[in-house]
Amino acid sequence: MAAQTVASTTDSTPGTQGAQDAGAPAPFGPAAALSCRECGARYPLSPVFACLECFGPLEVAYDLPTGDPEALRARIEAGPTNIWRYAPLLPVPADVTTKPNLNPGWTKLVKADNLARELGITGGLHVKDDSGNPTHSFKDRVVAIALEAARTFGLTTLSCSSTGNLAGAVGAAAARAGFRSCVFIPHDLEAGKVVMAAVYGGELVGIEGSYDDVNRFCSELIGDPIGEGWGFVNVNLRPYYGEGSKTLAYEIAEQLGWRLPDNLVIPIASGSQLTKIDKGLKELIALGLVEEKPYRIYGAQAEGCSPVSAAFKAGHDVVRPVKPDTIAKSLAIGNPADGPYVLDIARRTGGAVEDVDDEQIVDAIKLLARTEGIFAETAGGVTVGVLKKLIESGQLDPAAETVVLNTGDGLKTLDAVAPTTGPTATIRPTLAAFREAGLA
Amino acid sequence: MAAQTVASTTDSTPGTQGAQDAGAPAPFGPAAALSCRECGARYPLSPVFACLECFGPLEVAYDLPTGDPEALRARIEAGPTNIWRYAPLLPVPADVTTKPNLNPGWTKLVKADNLARELGITGGLHVKDDSGNPTHSFKDRVVAIALEAARTFGLTTLSCSSTGNLAGAVGAAAARAGFRSCVFIPHDLEAGKVVMAAVYGGELVGIEGSYDDVNRFCSELIGDPIGEGWGFVNVNLRPYYGEGSKTLAYEIAEQLGWRLPDNLVIPIASGSQLTKIDKGLKELIALGLVEEKPYRIYGAQAEGCSPVSAAFKAGHDVVRPVKPDTIAKSLAIGNPADGPYVLDIARRTGGAVEDVDDEQIVDAIKLLARTEGIFAETAGGVTVGVLKKLIESGQLDPAAETVVLNTGDGLKTLDAVAPTTGPTATIRPTLAAFREAGLA
User: Fold this and answer.
1) Does the pLDDT value for residue B116 go beyond 90?
2) How far is B290 from chain A (nearest CA, A)?
3) Closest Cα partner for B253 from B223, B277, B233?
């Protein structure tokens, strides 16, 4: 994709520490400002994340390209086979592809006919399989955008607190982009996850305490002079970070031939991904890239951490925090920041929020592997399990076209299936033994 | 890509068990016959793998498309972002994309400027990162072609012997394609690898014995009536299977903008992959898809299983088998079938074969992770480690453009780096502790 010059829509602000040459591409592309999701107050594009008026979360507001949707579609289709094909819709400069980045995205949308048959879906089923990303979870998408924001702001250390996928995504992205990284984890994380987080060679700091203690410590660090020049991808870079999830919506629509599915089943951790996919779908319609049609968004949680599902079923608008206890650790956020927005979207679109227990999660991981050859992380077991439950309970129309998300790779959560997954038989190396075992 | 009708070049033969309608696409596309690599004898396309005249290995011979290279390039570029974009050059029908398959390939070619700087390479360095395949190794490429051959031959069980990557690739591909699968492994395989092989729900049979015993048992099974209808991907389907590796050559050339690199560093297990990449490069030149230029092919082995490297250094034409002892288990074939062909290619192209020890493998895995954010399997440590050694010893010109292969994912061989990979520090959650640890 050739570098393009886009008229700057962004004022240079005190918060913008990066150099901004006259004539250089607008550092945030079509992004115009940060705006508060609660009160609508607008702020310049800078590394801040909460509204000064009402403490509401800030998100990126755009001056999106107007004009011929055909031309925009053609420009996207001529772009690279990663998220940067959607650069015209993201808070990144038009020359983003010239910077070192892991270039995630453009993962497979798998037509899942075998799984559809097993579930009784007749309207068509697709799995959006984000295990194909560079570090094998959807986190590469959000980190890629946060990294570019960090670069623009002149930040030099990329950081996060994490118990798994995010640590690897940040470590890998920082390594490739030449940033220092410093990732914080609870000191008692499983050995395998520590290796995945540490192998990229950045600083990895074990914190003596719970994940909550890790987060509290990170908040302290951001407020301290030590934290100057630090980009915590999911804290002070969160408005940019979150936008990475929009690319899931864009890819699904493009891979369906520029149209929307009827139903989407999306996992809920903080709830951010679900809300950003909805934002992306609405943008596609507004831009004329797809025809407007109703779609239903379904949220999926693990029973052991289902505060949003509980609120949905009880008809509440607020989410009561819980203490997580589930094998779906990548979804185990007991106090999901975007819970109320998720409830609103599920209700507005005619969807639902549902949950499945650990046994159902394991069964669903195996069902997806057995039918489509896709080995999902526990979060993928949650979405597939919830899809099954939604059909059985009549909440999701099997005659409609559905897309279900798998957001991570089964190799990362082997422990979940290990106790119940093994050889069919163990035999001596003879044909007689093979026959005796009933395998012939 | 629209299905296209291609004139059949393949006679219906007794070995061809699949139905072949008049007017249907040629079941093996441009493939014309099997031919013996030793004596040149030709055989109809069928599930056989050894020459009846001289017992030499059989490989696929083609009637490749002649005519305008620009038109062929355009046809490829308009194809899907997986190996099937090269269907006109593979032994598959033109409508292959309509069949259920894992659709591997089109993995990233990563411009590795950081690694190049560390190694002193000035001519450009790229990592072809095959960890991005569906089951995270290059085996998905070869299995995909074997699966389509099995479908055409009317075989119903997909099988292999394996100690790792191949088991998962076969299990996953069979699941998606609706084949029965039956995979044989040594009974004492590590627990994690058993889970990866078993999760796709096919038969997984532990054999009480060594990997050699497993192979012997499989040969017996093929010759027995029990084995009728079975496709052992790397035995009776081996001629088709091997062709999958050609796609690595095609992708590298296309991703470089339809041109060849100066050097390629490729791991050696059986040696098949290296010989097929060479075959693919020669085809690209013959078809006019790239300009003809010299290229050097370098083979990479682990010191603990380096029979080809030893023969190369000794100036021998034959390879003396060894008993493998290395952490690079996916390359641990002590008696590599294609060893002599590898020696010939390395010498003919002006390349070399080199090896590195286990400590160098681990160091190279970490070097690649730290510089490019790519976490490689031990086989990727072998190629990157060998690249380093080739430069240090003056065998590879750092001013030339080099492509190094990573054929698998680090998540599959966590044990290799685990003992030496961990947190930088473990601290209490206070800023004072952070400062004391020297991290601020």
Assistant:
1) yes
2) 21
3) B277
Compute the C-alpha angle B410/B411/B414, nearest 5°.
80
- Of residues B27, B7, B9, B8, the one with CA closest to residue B17: B27
ipTM summary value: 0.93
Decide whether A109-136+245-420 matches A139-241 in CATH topology.
yes
Q: Do A205 and B437 touch (CB under 8 A)?
A: yes
What single letter denotes the amino acid at residue B78?
A: A
Q: Rounded mean pLDDT of A243-248?
A: 98
pLDDT of B5: 29
pLDDT per residue as tens digits for the range B272-295: 999 999 999 999 999 999 999 999
B185 to chain A: which residues are within 8 Å by CB?
A: 423
User: Is B287 within 8 Å of chain A by CB?
Assistant: no
pLDDT reported for residue A22: 52
For domain B108-136+245-420, give the fold: Rossmann fold (3.40.50)
Structure confidence at residue A111 as a pLDDT band (50, 70, 90): very high
| In chain A, domain spans | 1-85, 109-136+245-420, 139-241
- Determine contact, residues B364/B377, Cβ cutoff 8 Å: no
- Please provide the CATH number assigned to the domain covering A109-136+245-420: 3.40.50.1100
Tens of pLDDT, residue by residue over A150-161, are 999 999 999 999
- Check A369 against B226: CB less than 8 A apart: no
Structure tokens at B65: 């498309």
Chain A positions in Cβ-Cβ contact with residue B176 (cut-off 8 Å): 114, 371-374
Q: Domain A139-241 belongs to what architecture?
A: 3-Layer(aba) Sandwich (3.40)
Residue in A135, A192, A220 closest to B431 by CB: A220
Phi/psi-derived region of residue A348, left when phi > 0, alpha when psi is between -120 and 50, beta in every other case: alpha
Whole-angstrom Cα distance, residue B132 to residue B140?
10
Taking an 8 Å cut-off on Cβ atoms, the answer to whether A426 and B226 are in contact is: no
Contact A315, A346 (CB under 8 A): no
